[in-house]
Amino acid sequence: MRPLIYSLFVLMLLSCTNSASKKIKQENVAVAEARVDAQSNLPALTFDKTEHDFGTINEGDVVETVFVFTNTGKSDLTILDARGSCGCTVPEYPKNSPIQPGDTGEIKVKFDSANKPGNQTKTVTLTTNTERGREVLRIKTIVTADPVKEKQRQAARNQMNQ
Question: What pLDDT digit, counting tens, does each position of 2-30 carry?
Fold first, then answer.
C-alpha cells in the first residue's frame, strides 16, 4: 500500500511541476512577443550620412552642414534634445515636433573654428524616442591657424614657461 501512495505522490508532483514549467514557458514567450511587437512599432531614424568632413578650413571660419533623416519606423518620431560636444558646435533640429513615418527632417550643424586650430572632431548627440534612444552625428575638419593668433598663442606660452 505504501509503495502505491508514494508512487501517486511522485506522479502528482511531476505533473504539477510540468504544468507550472509549461505555464512559465508560455508566459516568457508571450512577454518576448510583446517586446518584439512594441519594438517593431517604434519610430526609427535613418540618416543620409552620420559623419561630415569639412576638409581644411581657416581659423575663424563658421561652417555648416545638414544631416537629412527619415523616420523609417511605424510611429511618430520625436527628437527631444540635440547637444554639441562643445560650445563651438551648435545643432538646429525640429525640437519636440512629431515626424510621421515616412517623413524627412533636417539637423543643421554649425561649427565655429575660432580659437580651434588643428584637427577637430566634434559630435552632436540626439535624444529621441527610438528604441536606441540616442544617435550620434560627427563632424571633422582641419583648421589652419590664423598667423596673427598663432603668434599671440606662442608668446603667451613662452611667458608661461619663463
Answer: 665 655 555 555 555 555 556 566 555 54
